[in-house]
What we know:
The complex is a heterodimer of chains A (134) and B (459).
Chain A: E1 3-8, H1 16-27, E2 31-34, H2 41-51, E3 55-60, H3 65-68, H4 72-78, E4 86-90, H5 99-108, E5 113-115, H6 121-131
Parallel strand pairs in A: 1-2, 1-3, 3-4, 4-5
Chain B: E1 3-9, E2 13-20, E3 25-33, H1 40-55, E4 62-67, E5 74-78, H2 82-95, E6 99-104, H3 110-118, E7 123-126, H4 136-147, E8 154-156, H5 163-172, E9 177-179, H6 193-210, E10 222-226, H7 227-240, E11 241-242, E12 245-246, E13 251-256, E14 261-266, E15 276-279, E16 286-291, H8 300-305, H9 309-317, H10 322-331, H11 340-361, E17 364-370, E18 373-379, E19 388-392, H12 394-398, H13 403-406, E20 425-428, H14 434-440, H15 445-455, E21 457-458
Parallel strand pairs in B: 1-4, 4-10, 5-6, 5-7, 7-8, 8-9, 13-19, 15-18, 19-20
Antiparallel strand pairs in B: 1-2, 2-3, 11-12, 13-14, 14-16, 17-18, 20-21
Helix pairs in contact in B: 4-5, 7-14, 14-15
Amino acid sequence: MKTIVIGVIGADVHAVGNRIIQYVLTESGYNVVNVGVLSSQEDFINAAIESNADMILVSSLYGQGEIDCRGFRDKCDEAGLKDIPLYIGGNIVVGKQNFEDVEKRFKAMGFNRVYAPGVPIDDVLPDIKKDLGE
Amino acid sequence: MKNYLLIDFGSTNTKLTAVDVEKDEIIGTSKHFTTVSEDIRIGYNNALKELFAKCGELKFEKIIACSSAAGGLKMAAIGLVEELTVEAAKRACYGAGGKVDLVFSHYITKAEVEKIKDKKIDIVLLAGGIDGGNSDCVIHNANMLGKGNIKVPIVYAGNKSCQDDIKEIFDKYELDGYICDNIMPQLNVLNIESAKDAIRKIFLNNIIVAKGIKKVEDEIDGVVLPTPYAVLKASELLSKGYLHEKGLGDIVLVDIGGATTDVYSMGSGSPKRSDVILKGLAEPYAKRTVEGDLGMRYSAEGVIKALSEEQIKLYQERGIDLVQEAQFRFEHVDMIPHNAHDEEVDREFGEICTDIAISRHDGKMEAIYTPMGMLYYQIGKDLTDVSYIIGTGGVIINDHDPRKILEKLCYDIRKPLELRPKNPKYMLDKNYILSAMGLLSLYYPEVALKIMKKNMKLI
């Protein structure tokens, strides 16, 4: 069974979407380790090490995701989580911005997949399957 | 009359407490130097003679003991991530009555394995990975312990999924290995009972034999617990109560010894305010931490290391040369203060030990700024509503103003984010009965509780 670490990054308390993600991923046959809301990069990374996770899926709903995610990939590399797939989705930047630019910026930060506001978790499942080689 | 004799083989003294379990009363206490390097029975028999001299010849239905003699229970805690399984492993060691002398995380090295031998560790606790999680690290670490030819017992309390692999490694290298439940089966979930139990059994079957304590079992019914484990049991009982006998509620207990400072806290420690969010590893109701670098004699120099140069200068202004005093205490571990100056310096050391030890034990808050305003994380236990603080250990018991030392456990305006007790009442364990009552609670919890409530002295 593949393990996915999920949670809401930064000073962000949006708990509902995170629960829905946990529900859908569990139903789809994944072992979900949920670090919950208000989580730091270290919380995600520590959980991924202890659980030997195959992927980290970060949620951010309050617009500050770009600041909260800075250096995430570097820290993963430092912690030995080399090439672990990093996903992010939600309202990850301030205001309404051209999503293509946003995606580019997050990919430059080391995220493998970046999702625009409003994308339901069900639409992400095929990508997860593909990236985890299932 | 139904009498029980309870013995505490401490590193310095062998303490005897005779109890009449039908009258809920202590008949008498006595003590003598522990004679473990020679023959532990000598000290015991001398203490027994003293007891009989005080209270007359007594017959005992049962004689049981706890021990922290010959260096106590020295442990090495190995985990994966510092904040997670390493921390959980440390808590299991402390909860089992051990002293954590070595802490390792991630992949251990040859040099670290050598340290386990150099430090003469009694038991190694090997953890890492949640159930179904990381297994590479614990397998590597078990192999390293095997290659390093570690002879002392190894308790495996890591990822359940690789128990079989670990067992094979134990067999391959002929290690004295024990398998128990994972101390962190899920992220941030603490499950230390099985590991605590395994450690206690090893202590009783191996450690006390190796240390020459077992000999005394010719004359008594048994050594049944490590002393700190007994104190933890007694404190938990005193806090929670038993049947119709009410407990005292949340308590904090501090025991300043010559070599270590132990802090115990009983209570859930959950957040008391609505703007506080609990983070991190779950905390046990009965929590114990041990500071091996803070003590009145053997560890007096450690106290100096924990201070800044500036703090030491402030003491100098008051005419106390802490550095010199610490060195003297370290070189004269049997020193007893005889004048006002020595007593004052001892109290200062006691205050420093208490202050630093509670800082390492208590929960902390951390402010976070969110779009909804300021919120706080709470990491660790909230001790603000603790109802009683109990002090024990020579420096506290013998001081004419022990409250001064105990007040150092409380809220400090210079450390506003530490969740320390705010308006507690203060008590003393004047006759060192806590370990004895922990032992008695194995058979008569209600009696032990009544005796504790009668004998704790409010100050």
